[in-house]
Amino acid sequence: MRVYRPKLYAALWLLGMLALAWLTLQNLRRDWLETGFLALLPQAEQRPEVANAIERHNQAVNRKVVWLAGAANAGQAVTLAETVKTRLAASGLFAELTLQIPQQQYRQSYQQLFSYRYQLLDAKTRQALQHDPERLLRDNLETLYSPLGQLQAANLEHDPLLLFSRYFAAQNPLQLNIEHGAVVVPDGQMVRALLVGELPDRDLKLDKLELLLSLNQSLQNQVRQQGGELLATGLPLFTAYGAHLAQHEISTIGIGSTLGVVALLSLTFRSPRPLLLCCLAVAVGLLAAWNLSLLLVPKLHIMTLVFGSSLIGVVVDYALHFFCDGLGLPHWTPRRGLTYVLPGIAFGLLTSLLGYAGLGFSPFPGLREMALFSALGLVASWLTVVMLFPFLLARFRPQHQFGMLSLAGYWQRSWPERLHRYRRYLCAGFALLLVGGLSQLRAQDDVRLLQTAPTEITAADAEIRRLLPIGRDNQFFLVSGADLADWYRNERGLLDALAPLTAQAKLKQFDGVSSHWPDPTQQRADYQLLKTGVYRPDLLQRYMLNLGFEQTAIDSELQNFAAAESKTLSLDDWLASANPNLRQQWLGCNAEACRSIVVLAGIADLAPLPALAALPGVVWVDHVSQLSDLFQRYRQRVTVLLVGVCSLIMGILIYRLGWRDGVHVMSVPLLAMLTALATLGWFGELFTLFNLFALLLVLEVAVDYAVFFHMAAASAGTVDKRDTTTLAVALSAFTTLLGYGLLASSSTAIVHAFGVTLAAGVGSAFLLAPLIGFNANKSKQ
Asked: For residue 515, what is the DSSP state?
């Protein structure tokens, strides 16, 4: 049976390329790029209702951008904010821009709730009625006769006790100042006007993100030229910067890898055919990875493309081994070359896929996507080398002495010999290097390390959070109850427990639905408080007469109060009049439970908050901490996975090569991984879950190098076989370092550490691999 059929395999490869071309046309017509930071993160390991609460809570912040325009006075600040709003509106990026408070909505809400004014009391009024009802009336008189009394005088005719005015004022928990129709915030010698923008969609396309970033920078410069200052924050801005940084790194890493590979291959082979074929293998790998990934996932994240651009330095390895190891054979033919390199590159592909399978077990969608993209690219490049190269090289007769072959031969003979000569000192120094570095290694599992932002954006975010009582987007309480009454009791119990924390300055503010809507039981209780307190006929009459009301007005107020005794404001009716933020906090009722979110602002001491989860129906949600805990657990699991993969590969090596040779070959990847970890320790680099996945890739590359040197040592013939293997491994190492190693130049700390791990691991594997078979080779000489 004839297995070697280059024409048939080349035809099948061409059919595959036609299918890829058709897929490319289809994919170019769709929205395939994901840029949002949260898409990299997994759903926390928790109950579905908690995951739903996190998603609902995130919806309130994922599309919002907040600006504070600062000037010497409120008028100038509002004018600057209006200028900013005009330019933002002209950009077409935002579905809604809010500067002036919508008075129509304010009046409509007032009118909807006013008829229930005797059932709605704020917490301070309720407390006053419980302890000293007459003191409440005296406070009203003092307020009305003070300079601020004119502001309340207009409400007296319909609300003589100012009860509803107190309640309605409490609906604005932030207690923000309103001037010139806008929210203004005093800040030392400056006053800042608040502008809030909301995007139409949480997922902006790349061009829109670039526009948002450049527009924000332009607006800051414009406001600065007019003598003001513009602060901005919001998740879309962080996403826009991350996308901009990723674009820059894709071009830097991709172009750097490509130019480096082209330069190395040109210098080595001095022939266009090997260079063009290597470029073809790279292009096919990247094209197949992009198209086939989009068959399995709806969108590719931009960070996947950052890692994908570094794939250039890895997919070229198969072609390099074909040219260097295969063409080093006497009387070379494509068939003989493929027969020699096929076991090595097949084993290399297997170990690569095992490494990427480790990434595939990650709970992080971003990592699984990167693993899928890389694995598909490697398989496509491998198939290109195996199926197409023998056909295209059928009449290729190269010269065996490549330009760098003699240099590679000299290095592979002199390097192991020198190491052998000083082995005692080098082994002691190497052991010291490993022990010292590993002892300084510290794991860091903070999920926020995934995202890096420039100083000006993080500083502006911190300043806005200082000026506005904006809560952390990832920390809140989820309150549940079997029914509406049970939920109300549970949330009120939580709010009562939070109140002392605000008095102790451990928490600046908290807010829940039950802070504003009393349940029917509470509404009846509040009505009775009024009935037995300030609405006693003698007390009310004396109070209203002092204010100048006629007897008919007093009688009318008493009649209105009596007529309202049976009224009850339902939660649905209250929600219809509530502001959007409060509506967002109510999660609704289903057959299982009723649920809501209690938001927090200005957390100064986090320690007491998780303990409140012991209250009935209360769950403390800290999304970042939960994801960081998830990082830690999976780092521990992946450590076990890494040990398991190493054991599996060692078992395969021992089965194929024997106990002694198998252990010798496996010592290269093990030492390379330990060296990479020690390097992280010595240089104080981050050590996270991602570094372990980098070690899986180091394992794959180092096994490749060691296996090829073992094959060269076992080959019958001369030292030339080790020379060509050294050349192939050297080119492979340099191209890999140009690919994944360039990730070390990333501005994102976690990507940078990933690149450092790979650079140290691959570099040490390149230095250690020539030691395989060195003694055997010396004995032959």
From this structure: G
